[in-house]
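User: what does the whole thing look like in 3D?
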Amino acid sequence: MATTPLAESSAASGWQRRLANLIQPIVLLLPSGLWLTLLLVAPTLLILELSLIPGFRLGQPAGSYGLGNYLEVFQPVYLQVIGRSLGFAVGTTIVCLLLGFPVAYWIAIKAPKHWRNLLLVGFVLPLWTSSLLRAYAWITILRPSGLLNTVLELFGLPGQSWLNRSPAVLIGLTYSFLPYMVLILYASLEKLDRRLLEAAADLGATPQQSFWKITVPQTLPGIAAGGLLVFIASLGDFVVPELLGGASSMTVSRLIYNQFLGATRNWGLGSSFSMLLILAVSIAIALLLKYGDRSAARS
Amino acid sequence: MPPTNPRKFSRLSPSPRFSVARRRFLQTSAAAVSGIVLSNCARNLSNNTAPSAETSPTADGTTATDSKTLHVFSWANYTDDELLKNFKDQTGISVVVDTFDSNETMLAKMQAGGGRAYSIIFPSDYMVEQMIELNMLMPLDRSRLKGIDGLMPKWQNPVYDANNAHSVPAVWGTTGLIFDPQRVQEKVRGWDYVWNNVDSLSRRLTMINDVREVFGATLQYLGYSLNSTKPAEIEEAYNKLLEIKPAIAAFMTNGWEDQLASGDLQISMAYSQDAIVLMEESPNLQYIVPESGSSLWTDTMVIPKSAPNPDAAYEWINFMLEPENSAKLVERLKFATPNEAAFNRLSPEVKNNENLFPPQAILDKCEGIAPVPQDIADLYDRFWTQLTST
Amino acid sequence: MTSPLPSAAPKIRVSWQAILTGLMYGFMYIPILILGFYSFNASRFSATWGGFSLRWYYSLLNDARILSALRDSLAVAFCAVAISAVLGTMMAVGLAKYSFPGKGLYRGISYLPLIIPDIAIAVATLVFLVTVGASLSLWTIIAAHIVFCLAYIAVVVSTRLTGLNPHLEEAALDLGATPAQAFIKVLLPELMPAILSGCLLAFVLSMDDLLIASFTAGGGANTLPMEIFSRVRTGVKPDINALSVLLILASGFLAFLSEYIRFKGNQRRLK
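Assistant: Here's the predicted 3D structure for the full assembly of 960 residues, as structure tokens:
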């Protein structure tokens, strides 16, 4: 008598569960799926379509489809823009890696254990502040009458105009994305198997040897992930080149901005640059996945 | 648009290459959604010359619907808190001012539909003509304008807008160079100085963020018309500009003021209005109209067709036309008014300010920017993109 | 020497890594400190020190434009995050629990906003909105922000879901709970720390977004980053420095909150 209601209820719940298994995924996944389709996938496909209409401008009759916009990209001046953007991205990645690795290494390995979390949080705290204001802070430092020149002059060195040049952009980008690099490298270094290092030391390896033979290979996935993140972020960044770069550092994202909200309104050309940017980022991700798979297979 | 060549977006049969993309598109997105997007794509983008009048602006966002709020889209330095306060006291309408730094930026924003809150815009002369062509401006009802007859004769029937049918002139001025005489190498008379001192100017020069102003000044320097439509001349100007590219810190219409005053910049190309505002604070600065000439511009007040609050817009225009208000504003903000009645009320000191009201000899060297045919405009745009990209 | 416990003091060998790390901390904080320093500068020009003053804080608090921009930004961030919290959590749970054809594509698309540069998303959204004839307003900003807020919240919740005991919910169902009850009573509390920290992250990103808001704003809507950007480009007064200090304090508080939530979440997990 005690068992019957239980059996009944479980039968009912079984039927319910089957229905739920049918409805639940739809309820859970449809809203966001629709939203992403509507406001991400459809817009991106529209941009693809626009990029195939040479010289498309809002309010003017559209021309026929063609690859004109992509051909225009190959003009020397635009190749220079693309080269500059890639240069900034690669440069920022390398500088962040060179500066970030020792910091992450020190926090993860050398620093007192119970301080590590706090030290890490302290390092990434500036990420929580407005990226615009952080770039603006660099204007006040790099301008000719700014802090950097004041300090240089104290040491008797000649000041110069740092602002509106490429190094200013590189400094700004490094400043913006260094914390990401440190965060990812830290996560990777923290998992480092210390026993390997100890074993290497026991076997007579110098610290340098064990660093290059153990630490670096072990953290390679972290280096790759951090490098990729910084590369993507600095490639697409708009604020830093716009505020610190002045007239001499047009990048792909500034160019796209100008084609849509700036003076020249060539939506076709802007769209093709936008597609190229997406392509570049996708290639970077694909490389990481391929590379990541290989390194996973090795280990 | 010529009727001969309108291969419109919508009439195209999809090419085989594209139909693959379209099939994928249909797979990834809900059929209904893609149907709406693709069938409207053509009409909406190609014919979106302006926020059209039939779209109800009241369905807009949160702030635009309020009839007691007037959104103004203007250049910097044309309004101040006192003006907005006086206007509110007199009419009960509170004003929100957003600023733009070039006519083209303003047009881009309006065309993309981001400007439907604005009931008053301040485009320059040639842009008024272009916006009329694009059917973006509301014709003004003369019977609702008070004091428009008080304008100086020159502005009663301007070339860009016959009889001021769509626009009311508000401010005029020149474009020139502002600098600190103590910090430059030699006496600055015009653009010569810039081309002769590229090395010492290294990243200490700013130019206005406007294609026609920058190219116009260079064309004049080369001895051509500010409004040249000859591709060879425009290309020559582009090559000439490349020479001074290493000297240019940034293309900015405003924002150079602090850096010029503190000596971070040596010379800025500026609108007279912005230069005079700064010289009030830093009297050591000097403004000149280059020897080779410059542009003479008129900024106007217009009501876009999409204006959510045309009544308040008329109130605004009438308030600005009122000689007493206008004269007070000119005394405060130091801009050149085309309003004769207001000019007569100015103090002698302001009236005789040559930066504000330049003598006829200087004005004779100046030209107004005129619209150019579409293919030439595209050429200017292309060279501008290249100039700013190198 | 006079210290009662000399051996307890941690011995840190001053290596070059330590020095470099110290320098990098300086690099990260000097710009922020400089903004703070100049915010108390009475002089209008940042190049000269004109004495200590709070005038820029007063001028900031009386600046109607900044305040209304702050209001718009908060409205956008709160609306976008609130909607994304629901949708993003549902998405993460759905993706974790069910497999269906096209799941890989769905998941891939949901990661896109994390990867595609802002400028590309902004431009695409603008073209789409113009194409469908939507009139730009505060609501279009919110709609566009939901896209990336959703993605970030879903990712944070997903990582939490993978570490969760999958049998908990089944046990609840076996005990007669309806799927909705099981979800609300069992799963949701477990996910709460992740949802909250995802929300905080999304909130900060939304408050910081310049590009997407610039391209989708209309109808007089003006967010704080848009206002700051236009001020930096058209000439700043030092009240921007004062604003930075206040924003940095606010975000420092948020960062602390986020760490606290993460800490609590980890504690819970360990129990």
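In plain terms: Chain A has one domain: 68-298. The radius of gyration of chain A is 26 Å.
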